[in-house]
Amino acid sequence: MSTSLDTLIRLAAKRFGADPAQLRAEDDLFERLGIDSFQAVELISDVEDEFDVELPDYELQGIKTFAALAQKIDARR
Amino acid sequence: MLDLGKLSCLGEALRDATITYKSRTALIEADRHRENSRHTFAELRAAAERFAGAVQAHGFGPGDRCAIVMQNQSKWLIGATGALWAGAVLVPIDYKLTAPEQHALLAHCRPRVVLAEWPAWDKLQREDPSIFERTLVIVTEAPEGAGIGRAVRWEDLPQGAGFTYHARAREDVACIVYSSGTGGAAKGCQLTHANYLAQAETLGNLYPLSEGDRYFSILPTNHAIDFMCGFLLALMMGGAVVHQRTLRPAYLASTMKRYGITHMALVPTILKTLEKKIKEKIAELPKWQRLVLGGLMDLNEYATRQAPDHRLSKTLLAPIHEYFGGKLRLMFCGGAFVDRTSAEYFNRLGLPVAIGYGLTEAGTVLTVNDLKPFRGDSVGKAVEGTELELRDVNDAGVGEVWVRGPTVMLGYLDAPELTREAIVDGWLRTGDLGSIDAAGHLKLFGRTKNMIVTEGGKNVYPEDIEAAFGDIDDCEEFCVFAANFIWPTGKMTDEQLIVVVRPKSGLDEAGRAALIDAFRRRNLRLADYKRISAYVLWDREFPRTASQKIKRDPLARELKPLGRDGALREL
After folding, report:
1. Please, which residues have CB within 8 angstroms of residue B469's CB and are 6 or more apart in sequence?
2. Among A33, B129, B261, B329, which is least packed, fewest CB within 10 Å?
3. What architecture is the B461-570 domain classified under in CATH?
4. How would you classify the pairing of strands B534-537 and B497-503?
């Protein structure tokens, strides 16, 4: 089974047309994907559907890296 | 008619409402498709009295400060109501600021009580705790087992702790609202009960809400617009306030539909998002339906050109109105410059957008469009009791807007010098440039101040951002500006922040490129609305004061001859 992190990176790469092999756990996802907070919300919606979890808006404040986001997903699974 | 002239304070107005409308719904809190809670006015009263009693048990007295650091939700309004009944001065803090920024504002106003949501308190308690020594911290939504430190949980507030209602006088301070100061000097606007009551009465009579109306509170409640419309006004007039815990666009329309939202306030970015959604929906229709809809929009526009007619528009344009639940009557839009095409588009749909203009320093709105008829090209006429004056008017009739009236603040907290600069002989200088036409409508053309207002309604002061770029290698000095401050465009759109960078002398081309790269990386660490979009490389020494502060005006004058397009490179 792939980890949340792998799945997250796959979803992000798919949505924003990036190469998943180029994305690392500690990358700043805004910087790396060149996205703003509105686009990040779209990614979060994908994540929620994929993992069947709910991530409250307040938990996502200040999240910058793929690893940190994956941790939030794991905490809710 | 709403008559608040005989009331002494906000607490009294809210108490009257909880008695008058007791069995009606006051608060609804939704979370996605679930409903978290619902309060009637009588239940709001009981919950607010419990909060008031609990803080009073800790020695909270009239004139003490109660800060609120929460996202929009029912407990925000319950806590604020209870605090007002205990005689509090409210200090709404922007939930989206970072913990150090929030901490700095709390250190400035030293509240006796802090009401905070868990994620905010979790971070705040890791900052210097000494400012909380005498403070009662009440935390909401803390998970079981969370290390809440010195705070007490909302759920654990005592029931039935004796409560005494404390009225305040009209001239007492009701709120301290920070309009900036996260990096530079803190500007805590002190607004009195009289300020708010005057504003509520004017707005309530222009756009009456009534029992059964539902106000959707989506702008942050710490922001002047939502504080007035989505708290005070809605409740005073017997309307219900609906909160949705997630503001993802997917849930906006479904919440509006489910609860029959009648009123809401927006900032321009959200208006644009809604416009996009409707256009996508229309684009999905077969061509003939789109043509019919276009015709109906024209007809609606013609039929409602004198004043809005909700019932008619709803009949003509049923599918569009249904998307928003079919009850929406009015949207207020302000907080930032509103693009007239968006406002005109919604008006064509029979969903009028009342465009307003205001400053935290002067309550909620100074001018607003009364929709008789709708105009998208102005920010409306001065509201009753407010006087506008243009000063230093140029040949084109454009001058700096000064205002006087019952909503102008008392002054900034503990900052007499800043207050003296802002308010002169009772007139508040807005720093905005405008003209007033024969019908009394104000149009805005830019700013005299070195600041920008984002489409989301955030004031951004260049001085506040500079801290993010300290200690960059090979940088001799730098300075952040609003581009319009150096090169005025006469418009309020396309505002951008720029940085002027002076590299260390003798740095080669590669080094200069690396320096800009360093700025680029730091820039991405900033919240997106604070980011800088362009830079100027500048090799001349910056003019400075005796105390080594950069003299911004002379530096701006030196940069001006370069021309905006000639000087700026994309960061």
Report:
1. B475, B478, B480, B499, B519, B522, B523
2. B129
3. 2-Layer Sandwich (3.30)
4. parallel
C-alpha A40/C-alpha A16 separation (Å) is 10
- pTM of this prediction? 0.85
Same fold across B22-209+216-232 and B267-447: yes
User: Is A56–B245 a contact, with Cβ atoms under 8 angstroms apart?
Assistant: yes
Q: Three-state DSSP class for B162?
A: coil
Instruction: Label residue B182 by pLDDT band (50, 70, 90).
Output: low
Q: Residue with structure tokens 């700026």?
A: B568
Q: With contact defined as beta carbons under 8 Å apart, do B214 and B259 qualify? A: yes
pLDDT band at B256 (very low <50, low <70, confident <90, very high): very high
CB contact B245 to A (< 8 Å): yes
Collect all residues of chain B within an 8 Å Cβ-Cβ radius of residue A30.
Answer: 524, 528
Give the three-class secondary structure for B265. Answer: strand
CB contact at 8 A, B319 and B290? no
Nearest CB to A57 within list B246, B273, B524: B246
Q: How many domains does chain A have?
A: 1
Instruction: Give the span between the Cα atoms of A5 and B314, in whole angstroms.
Output: 48
B267-447 CATH fold? Rossmann fold (3.40.50)
Summarize pLDDT for B185-239 with one digit per residue, the tens. 778 999 999 999 999 999 999 888 988 999 999 999 998 999 999 999 999 999 9
pLDDT tens profile B389-400? 999 998 888 899
**Which pLDDT does position B161 carry in this prediction?**
78
So what's the ipTM on this one?
0.73
Choice between A19 and B458, residue whose per-residue pLDDT is larger:
A19
Residue B183 banded pLDDT, cuts 50, 70, 90: low
DSSP letter at B496 equals: -
- Domain layout of chain B by residue ranges: 22-209+216-232, 267-447, 461-570
**Domain extent at residue A39:** 4-76
Q: B22-209+216-232, what's its fold?
A: Rossmann fold (3.40.50)
Q: Is B122 on the interface with A (CB under 8 A)?
A: no
